[in-house]
Write a structure and sequence with these properties.
This protein is of the alpha/beta class and about 450 residues long. It has 16 helices and 17 strands.
Amino acid sequence: FVQAVACGEAREIACYGTRGDGKTIGILAAMIGHAAKHDEQKFDLPVRWIGVTDTFASHKIKTVRSLELPLWKGCWKVYDGGHLAVARVNGREIVHLDLFGIEDEGAKDRVRMETVGVWFEEPAPTAVLVSSRGVDEFTWSIAITSQRLPSHCHPAVMTLNYPDEDHWTWRRFGPQPGTSGVSPDMPTRRWFRIPPGETASADQRKEWAEALKERPDLKRRLLDGQPGTVLLGPQVAVGFREDLHVAKARIEPVYNEPIFIGQDFGHTPATIIGQVWRGQLRVLFAAAAQKAGIRQHYQETVLPWILNTCPWVRGAARTMICGCYDPSGETGEQSDLEANAVAELERQLPGLWWPGPIKWESRKHTLIASFNRHVRPGELALQIDPVEARDLVKALSSRWHYPQDRQGQVSRDLPKKPNHPWEDLGDAFIYWLWGLTTEHSQPATITVETEFALGGPVGW
């Protein structure tokens, strides 16, 4: 990694590692190596670098401490309250590193300053040491355009713990198993994965594993060296555990048994489909449609899945389909401006439908109780398909969260909004759970004339 940065083996370089793997030490050493090559080719010293993270507090807690480690023997010195780090070798200043956070839009302008090297520290959100929102891809792109000072090469480098698998810092480089490689879509991008535990001792890792045993999401990212789901705020689905509530293999639907549906409306309609079988609450499918109405969502996504996976429901919708929906859909024009959402839902998929709860406390109780429900001692009832319901797993693990104020405190006891599609998937899941307890509600009236039109529901 140090050699790649120093010699300019790639235009963009990402270094992923687990807790205590020396990523920050690596990039600081790489800056010195780069300066040596820069000097050999007669470019002016010192070499200018910018060090960017989401808040300056993150630099003060982590970066400045790394700069002051005894291993540097005084090579690095910190000035201006931590905003400037200077590397000296043989009495010469060879690197000037400007450290700053981008807490607001005004601070983002600082990435436009002319520089040779760019370093982003933890650009993916994290909850380690300090709460971090991460840095967006647009800011990364702007920083690259600021690398205008003369040098033998202009590396743009990020060092980070493993991010979420669909975060831009992972997708941009496309890392594969192994310790290093080149992005398959962009040969100017190179990635490195530090083997877990390269610098941390076995005793440290054992201690961390014990500390994170109730947080498998963090253990995966911080100890196991794999991308995972990042906790963005206090978890709404308290009690959900991916290692316990997500099935180890695909869940096959039980033939000729009814399916249960939870439906949330709005500009991001979300649908949960599952079955109850021998006490198990099985989630088979979860999907949300960005900026689509119920008609498009059902015709393009939901109905094809049902026909392909549970074809026996087609001729028996009234006995094989039960659903619970967001009561806000009973008013308004959210389904392609032609009918209200509930009317369109019943038109697309006739069955036994009833409205879900409105008050958050009732919904919250239903949610939390589901994670503790057992089929028998030692066997949890809730099981979620790891593939077809992957987005629901992400929502329950971390992305469906409560809002926080600047001090990191929960600002209100309601899930963060807007937060699409995670809040929509979470709400749809609650309606699905609520619908399984039939004493809560009475089925809505079904229009029998549409049910068997064209041999089945209109959507088919």
